[in-house]
């Protein structure tokens, strides 16, 4: 049995999984998530903001303390969309090395897809082939495969990027939603032309937008990962939740019992992405997964 620490640093959140991995199974020791918005403003400036780097450093310091308290065999930190795009990515790498003692791996879109697929399909009892969609803050990954990744593409559409680019009002105006819809639809159609998502038997959705929408579709009184993981949500239910979220103010979203406070201002953009993916792919339902790239990272170093 190996005890490992996996860290996933994306555009919106940074997450830690400490787990014991044995016989192809992950046994959680600790899962943590902090919304740090590392990619705030990157789509406009091309740089990681000083305040965003400071927020990320504070979260990492907490993770490093927990890792130090436990007997960890290996640590791997992967950084995705925002730190790939930024002109000052070297500052980010130096900060991580100083806090954590390891270099962050600024992984490619292909590697991100492989890790997401591995985490998503572990323990999944559903009909292959799969279309895996991982809706992040800065990008969305589209991955198809049966036993492993067969085709994958990463598109620069994510909940933070679409909100910063289009959804400026609170709530967004019809014109803003239309502009975002055109942008997202063009990207989704290009993705589905590159990977055979329309012929997949099962659509699996990853990350906070999808799990939050699954919780809302089920009417959960609080966020319950055990009821969200592998929940199957119809296309009609996803469209209804997306439309409702886009019609709400940030304050109204914050009042929803399943909403993470750090997601409320950008979840409408992510919801619109999932709605359009389901419309354009023709998938009747999405299976929400609490297991994703973080679990894939843990498997990769076990």
TrEMBL record:
Entry-linked CDD domains: ASKHA_NBD_MtPPX2-like
Keyword Ion transport tagged: no
Keywords: Hydrolase
Domain Ppx/GppA phosphatase N-terminal: start-end pairs: 17-300
Keyword Cell division in record: no
Superkingdom as given in the UniProt entry: Bacteria
Protein name, per record: Hydrolase
Pfam families: Ppx-GppA
Gene Ontology terms for molecular function: hydrolase activity
The organism of origin for this protein: Paractinoplanes durhamensis
């Amino acid at each position: 049995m190996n005890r490992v620490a996996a860290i996933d640093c994306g555009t919106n959140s940074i997450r830690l999984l400490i787990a014991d991995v044995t016989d192809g199974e992950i046994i959680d020791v600790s899962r943590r998530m902090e919304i740090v918005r590392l990619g705030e403003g990157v789509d406009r400036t091309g740089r990681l903001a000083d305040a965003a780097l400071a927020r990320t450093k504070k979260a990492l310091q907490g993770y490093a303390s927990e890792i130090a308290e436990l007997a960890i065999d290996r640590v791997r930190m992967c950084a995705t969309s925002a730190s790939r795009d930024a002109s000052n990515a070297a500052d980010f790498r130096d900060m991580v090395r100083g806090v954590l003692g390891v270099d962050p791996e600024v992984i490619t879109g292909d590697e991100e897809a492989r890790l997401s697929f591995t985490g998503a399909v572990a323990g999944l009892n559903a009909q292959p082939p799969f279309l895996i969609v991982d809706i992040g803050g800065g990008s969305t990954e589209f991955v198809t495969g049966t036993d492993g990744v067969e085709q994958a593409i990463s598109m620069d559409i994510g909940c933070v990027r679409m909100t910063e680019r289009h959804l400026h009002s609170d709530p967004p105006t019809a014109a803003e939603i239309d502009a975002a819809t055109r942008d997202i639809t063009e990207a989704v159609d290009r993705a589905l032309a590159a990977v055979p998502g329309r012929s997949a038997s099962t659509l699996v959705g990853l990350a906070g937008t999808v799990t939050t929408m699954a919780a809302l579709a089920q009417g959960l009184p609080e966020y319950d990962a055990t009821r969200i993981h592998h929940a199957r949500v119809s296309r009609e239910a996803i469209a209804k939740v997306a439309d409702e979220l886009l019609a709400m103010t940030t304050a109204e979203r914050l009042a929803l019992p399943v909403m993470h406070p750090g997601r409320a201002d950008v979840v409408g953009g992510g919801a619109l992405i999932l709605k359009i993916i389901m419309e354009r792919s023709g998938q009747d339902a999405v299976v929400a997964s609490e297991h994703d790239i973080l679990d894939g990272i843990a498997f990769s170093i076990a």
